[in-house]
């Protein structure tokens, strides 16, 4: 590592302006830039990716970084730091402080600190016992509750539910930090770097005029990131944890992207009719498979009609719940339960509930 006097001369640093010196290894515990220039001495070329990820949450992607490599000083934008070949020897980095407006960040630190306390020796016994695996169901539940708030059009509820989703992210990051794998800074830096890398039409010289072009470019960049060998299936990366309808739709979209698709909705509509006939004629041991084929065909039809099948079924379930609850309420007014009456009586109340919905929908008309 070069001595300090040498570095001050190389980067034309004036100590009267102040200086923060932080080795690369200490960036993981860094709270972000103060109103001082930052010097990072003796960085191994193999660590540049981690350094770039650690800095991106605090500096804009195009913030200039001065790099001293093999005796010469170069300047590159921060998001291009790790993509350069700086040789085999340690290099030194220098960054001017970001402008005041650039230093304003969303306040994640208090939440991270609270979670650290909850997981600490004097924290909460329940929080200390949790693992990635035990928290899995909470991640799913909170995501679904956020979606429900979106469907309800309730911004206050959505704000609350997004906080619960964020809590799950911070919780998992804290568990990983304790295991020495990654922390919240790595999560934020990683997604920031990915967004910049996958939007060259915004942060680079590429162009994309439509959402379809953006999607194609995104997929191409993703394939290149995974090696770009051409051996990977187009269907790779479709999460097995997605709800079944959403996963079926995504698989179909991937195949449709290369032309494996019906020309219009009539094709999948005919397929739905064909699969329904097969379900009705299937012996007991084959019914599950045939029902699966029917549902897959129904997803294909929904996709061709421009309908999100997951959302459509969610809303259909909500409508069913609302109408059945109406039947229960009307029966309860008479001191009855659904089990006390005939199907015909419940069906009559069901139709009554539908008429009530329509009157509400169309202003009582």
Task: Describe the protein's architecture and organization.
The chain is α+β, with helices and mostly antiparallel strands and 365 residues long. It folds into four domains: 4-103, Methyltransferase, Cobalt-precorrin-4 Transmethylase, Domain 2; 109-197, MazG-like (Helix Hairpins); 254-304, Helix Hairpins; 309-361. The chain is 55% helix and 7% strand. It is built from 15 helices and five strands. Strands 1-2-5-3-4 form a five-stranded mixed beta sheet, with no helix packed on it. Strand 3 and strand 4 (72-77) form a beta hairpin. Helix 6 (136-152) packs antiparallel against helix 7 (155-178) and helix 12 (266-281) packs antiparallel against helix 13. The chain is elongated. The relative contact order is 0.06. It comes from Symbiobacterium thermophilum (strain DSM 24528 / JCM 14929 / IAM 14863 / T). One of its GO terms (molecular function) is nucleoside triphosphate diphosphatase activity. Residues 130-203 form the NTP pyrophosphohydrolase MazG-like domain. One of its GO terms (biological process) is dUTP catabolic process. InterPro entries: MazG-like_dom, NTP-PPase_MazG-like_C, NTP-PPase_MazG-like_N, NTP_PyrPHydrolase_MazG.
Radius of gyration: 29 Å
- Tell me the helix content: 40-55%
Would you tell me the overall average pLDDT?
88
- Write down the overall geometry: elongated
CATH superfamily of the largest domain: Tetrapyrrole methylase, C-terminal domain
End-to-end separation: 82 Å
| Largest sheet descriptor | 5 strands, mixed
As for the number of domains, it is: 4
CATH fold-level name of the largest domain = Methyltransferase, Cobalt-precorrin-4 Transmethylase, Domain 2
Beta-strand content estimate: 5-15%
Query: What is the count of DSSP helices, taking H or I runs of 4+ residues?
Result: 15
User: What string gives the helices and strands in order?
Assistant: HEEHEEEHHHHHHHHHHHHH
- Strand order, sheet with most strands: 1-2-5-3-4
Structural class determined from secondary elements? alpha+beta
Low-confidence stretches: none
Number of strands: 5
Architecture (CATH level 2) name of the largest domain: 2-Layer Sandwich
> Given this structure, which CATH class of the largest domain is correct?
Alpha Beta
GO biological process, one term: UTP catabolic process
Pfam family, one: MazG
GO molecular function, one term: nucleoside triphosphate diphosphatase activity
Domain NTP pyrophosphohydrolase MazG-like: 130-203
